Amino acid sequence: MVASTSTRQLWVEPWLAALPAPAGELGPVQQRGRAALARTPLPAARAEEWRFTDLSLLAQLPVASVAAAVERPLPAPQPGALRLHWNGREDPLQGVELPAGLQALTPTDLAQGLGHTLAATGCEQHWPVELNQACAERVLALRVASRQRVNLELISAAGEGLQPLRLLLLLEEKAELDLSQLVSAEAAGLHSLVVEVHLARSARLQHGLVAFGRSDAALLAHLAIEQEPESQVSLSQVVAGWGLARLEPRVVQVDGGAHTILRGLQVVDGQQIADTHSQLEFRGPEGQLDQLHKAVAAGQGRSVFNGAVRVPREAQRTNAAQLSRTLLLSDRARIDTKPELEIVADDVKCAHGATVSSLQTDELFYLQSRGIGADQAAGLLQRAFCEEVLRDLPAAARAWCPLERLLEARA
Amino acid sequence: MIRPDAPVLLEIRDLHARVEDKAILKGVNLTIRAGEIHAVMGRNGSGKSTLSKVLAGHPAYTVTGGSVTYRGDNLLELDPEQRARIGVFLGFQYPVEIPGVSNLEFLRVATNARRTEQGHEELDTFAFEDLVRERLKVVQMDPAFLDRSVNEGFSGGEKKRNEILQMALLEPLVAILDETDSGLDIDALRIVAGGVNQLANADNATLLITHYQRLLDAITPDYVHVMAAGRILRTGGKELALELEQRGYDWVDQELAALAAEVA
Amino acid sequence: MSSSQAVGDLVSQPYKYGFVTDIETEKIAKGLSEDVVRLISSKKEEPAFLLEFRLRAYRQWLQMQEPDWAALGYPPIDYQDVVYYAAPKQQQKKASLDEVDPKLLETFDKLGIPLSEQKRLSNVAVDAVFDSVSIATTYKEKLAEHGVIFCSISEAVKDHPELIERYLGTVVPSNDNYFAALNSAVFSDGSFVFIPKGVECPMELSTYFRINSGDTGQFERTLIVAEQGASVSYLEGCTAPMFDTNQLHAAVVELVVLEDASIKYSTVQNWYAGDENGVGGIYNFVTKRGQCRGDRSKISWTQVETGSAITWKYPSCVLQGADSVGEFYSVALTNNKQQADTGTKMIHVGPRTRSTIVSKGISAGRSANSYRGLVQIGPKAVGARNYSQCDSMLIGDQAAANTYPYIRSQQPQASVEHEASTCRISEDQLFYLQSRGIGFEEAVSMMVSGFCRDVFNQLPMEFAAEADKLLALKLEGSVG
Fold first, then answer.
1. Which of A145, C84, C188, C239 sits 20 to 30 Å CA-CA off C154?
2. Under CATH, domain B8-263 is a member of which superfamily?
3. Is the distance from CB of A132 to CB of A85 less than 8 angstroms?
């Protein structure tokens, strides 16, 4: 099953060869990424970070990229929301009138800001990031002005081949952004997403990423976030149906004192793999984290969660709570969960917990004893399990009915 | 009970104290004799809780001036545990939870520390159990609380009863009860006040720190002191508490303002 | 001085077991080679199968890499700079204690392990291991009446070779890991316990390990077998003198438990930890594993780890038999520059297997204390359950507490639950206890032992007090 490093290295080459020569505003970044890819072998199971995540699906994907559109009809945008269709090639802002408070970054700002948060969160040399840098031709770079509130919807259809998306968001002091993001795989392809967000003091971000895949599609996503004190981030990710999905939300509270809410829900069935590696680092005192990661594993699916929380000495009075809950629905599915707590400060509250089990028999029995059929009861309980994460999505993302599609993805 | 010839237990003279950089006590004077019950009243922030913590030796508070003598000796130079052993007791406004440490063991170690200081023999586990069961009656407490960790998961009323139980075991000469009535319902207040009344006698003294009159309906003070801005502004009998109840604390502000004007 | 500083000072007490016994020792030259392995085997007059076992392990070791995944940092170990065999010059084990060198008896007396008939504990049989050899085992005859074998592993090789051949290396294969392979090649001595079918061992068994020479590695090997329906409670204690060089200790412990049998294995580890700058101290790389081979069998590990410069240790249970039970109760206290990476592995193979993990880490000074544990539920472990609880207590703002609980499951009809928390000794808690007349040291000690209570409750009665004393010792002294 697992291709050897050399054969896996081989398939990257035609991809790289098919790329146009480095050009445009991202030319230097592309150069850097390509050099890095040529140097670094693909992540392999020998590396702890990739131990359970088999990348061999990538070798089977077509090289040539073909654009696609989201096939399912979407509800109309939320009132007051700006909806952008974003495929990484065309400029999604073309012909769009930006609402008050939202501006495209100037080339100078872009040059200054791009890559900053990746470096701050220590992932600028990660293989999926280098892959994105090697290929991305455009970056969607936006600024939310101080004290303004913006509601943004980003819709991406993942077509055939490789689709790199890169997003840079700067939130000024007290700026507020609701960001609902949909990624929908419509063909066999690799969807590469790199997001950087910098939140100035007292800014607020509510980000919901809903990613529906298919068994012949892969998603590699890095979400790097820097938070200044008193800012608040709520980051919710719902992924289902991908042959391979790897998500790395990485948050740094640069001076502590910020509030981070992380929510994750991943659903695997068939031979699918979903892997979330989250990391939160407190670089100052009085930061808060509230993290809930959930997984549903059915069929022969494999679900991986690695949640790192780092509390160095300067992060006194940190309050962090992490909970990982997994529903294991089949005896051929596999679960690997590893919280990682590293603390060097004595006046902190850090708690974490993990549970792995199937549906609770007493809960099932209770529902059945009220006349609800076993399958229906199981469905209800699964919905309840998922709902706890879904309800923290921003309104637009919630309106995309992910619960219905989640259960579909399972069927 | 006021007896002018009773021995002085606690003598506070021009006491100044601060927490971090903030001066809180600015010249407190108070004399407490055996047999007396004193009540210190005042608004939040008047310094009354600070006074109790300074008397018990809390490390966060620094004494910057004045003196406190306990039966003629300098109290301020003693560690908190030494103050407890010689008979100064602080009933906490918020008793601290200590997971893992059994309440029974805690009570026994504390009681024996006090007994050793008094020159009594230490009690073994059996003798102590007999004693504690008898003292439980003072606050009508269920013996099941003895097997739990110190204050862990206790309700507000249970914590306060546990405080009075400790007082019953340690038999202090000066008991300082910091807002013992806060967070108590009527029944719990009655039990706690009943405990305090049972323990008060001609040889010891009680210093009640409270915000409300209702505790003083259950425990009759000999003296009532009104505290404001880190000083005792006025002293009177129990009728002063009733006056406060009726007039509120606004007149205190007026007096303070007048005082400030005088100084200026 | 802030209370956390004062608490920190409290846990920095001098090591009480740091003396060296002046005794003539026979040592072989430093270094490791196939010849050294053969020499050790011949000195111990071992049968051919054991020499083969050692040589195979040595060759495997040569092919292996020292593991680097633990959260530990230490300079590279020069395996050629270690003496692999040292023994007090009193080759034959004496038939009676009267013939044992009085200096050795005195040493164990000083360590609180009296061996002589008048002074020894009435209900605990002790095997005393000094450097590489066992010098005395008490109550052997009394135990033999019940069919219980309790002796040094060297004696067992001579007297019960068939048992050794049947069980040695079956739980921890010689190529299991780098340190286990090293131990399998050069192990010197250790204890052997065999509890026959249906026998409940009439007394506590205990082995006391003492490292005395400075440049000697200690590689003891312990094997405990409990046959059907048998049960035993076993305790090991460890101390070493203070040297300014690090000493290597790589032990292997194997437990085999058959149907309805149980082994309770307790450790009070107080090897020399090095000085406050991390100079000297024992490198403690230990592989401990038990197999619950029979249905309804049970293994319970309890450890109180307070010593060693470095601890790398994961006492584990392989739960094969249906309804078998694994338990791990641990207290690890690190101070100064000590590093501990410890935890357990609970491998659920059989149906309805159950495991419990309770880990309490206390980190002070500039130490690093990591819990690393694995709970693995295999596809056949229908109805398996695990509950884990990992709590850390931090003393001062320079100590690290890390928690890495790995969970793997392939069985939907199983449940795994993990909880972890951190706490410290707060100023308010200390003041509350002090304001009731309880002195600072006693207050800290009460809170630390309260934090560890769930684990201490698991120690055999005779040793619970010892563990409490040990922590108290670490916490003893005046407040500066």
1. C239
2. P-loop containing nucleotide triphosphate hydrolases (3.40.50.300)
3. no
Q: What is the distance between the alpha carbons of residues C57 and C42, in angstroms, rounded to a whole number? A: 17
Residue C476 within a domain: no
Instruction: Tell whether C73 is covered by a domain.
Output: yes
A297-328 pLDDT tens trace:
999 999 999 999 999 999 999 999 999 999 99
Whether residues C429 and B95 touch (CB distance < 8 A) is answered with no
Cα separation, A159 vs B208, whole angstroms: 76
Residue C273: how many other CB atoms lie within 10 Å: 28
Q: What is the pLDDT of residues B196-244, one digit of tens each?
A: 999 999 999 999 999 888 889 899 999 999 999 999 999 999 888 888 8
Number of domains in chain C: 1
Say whether residue B100 is in contact with chain C using an 8 A CB cutoff: yes
* Domain locations in chain A as residue ranges: 67-410
Distance from CA of C410 to the nearest CA of A (A): 5
In a domain, C133, yes or no: yes
Of A335, A338, A355, the CB nearest to C404: A338
Print the domain residue range for C210: 20-427
Please check whether residue C472 lies inside any domain of the structure.
Answer: no
Instruction: Find the CB nearest C447 among B56, B59, B98.
Output: B98
Partner chains of B (3+ C-beta pairs under 8 Å): C
**Chain C positions in Cβ-Cβ contact with residue B109 (cut-off 8 Å):** 438, 442, 446
- Chain C CB contacts of B56 under 8 Å are 431, 435
Q: Which carries the bigger pLDDT value, residue B187 or residue A304?
A: A304
> What number of C-beta contacts closer than 8 Å exist between B and C?
83
Task: Give the number of A-C residue pairs with CB atoms closer than 8 Å.
Answer: 114
> Pairing between strand C252-257 and C231-239?
unpaired
| Closest CB to A353 among C379, C396, C419 | C419
Selected residue of A344, A355, A361 to mutate for chain C interface (largest C Cβ count, 10 A): A344
Partner-chain residue, chosen from C427, C436, C437, that has the shortest CB–CB distance to B59? C427
Residue A4 has pLDDT above 50, yes or no: no
Q: Which residue has the tokens 């204890």?
A: C191
**ipTM reported for the complex, 2 dp:** 0.86
Query: What's the pLDDT at C5?
Result: 57
SS (H, E, C) chain A: CCCCHHHHHHHHHHHHHHCCCCCCCCHHHHHHHHHHHHHCCCCCCCCHHHCCCCCHHHHCCCCCCECCCCCCCCCCCCCCCEEEECCCCCCCCCCCCCCCCEEECCHHHHHHHCCHHHHHCCCCCCHHHHHHHHHCCCCEEEEECCCCEEEEEEEEEECEEEEEEEEEEEECCCCEEEEEEEEEECCCEEEEEEEEEEECCCCEEEEEEEEECCCCCEEEEEEEEEECCCCEEEEEEEEECCCEEEEEEEEEECCCCCEEEEEEEEEECCCCEEEEEEEEEECCCCCEEEEEEEEEECCCCEEEEEEEEEECCCCCCCEEEEEEEEEECCCCCEEEEEEEEEECCCCCEEEEEEEEECCCHHHHHHHHCCCCCHHHHHHHHHHHHHHHHHCCCCHHHHHCCHHHHHHHHHC
Contacts 24+ apart (CB under 8 A), A4-9: A5/A41, A5/A42, A5/A44, A7/A59, A8/A41, A8/A42, A8/A44, A8/A55, A8/A56, A8/A58, A8/A59, A9/A41, A9/A42
**Residue corresponding to tokens 């054969």:** A7
Say which range, A112-126, A304-318, C196-210, has the weakest mean pLDDT. C196-210
Burial label for A108, CB within 10 Å (0-12, 13-18, 19+), is exposed
First-residue to last-residue Cα distance in chain B: 40
Of C419 and A359, the one with more pLDDT? C419
**Residue C393: how many other CB atoms lie within 10 Å:** 24
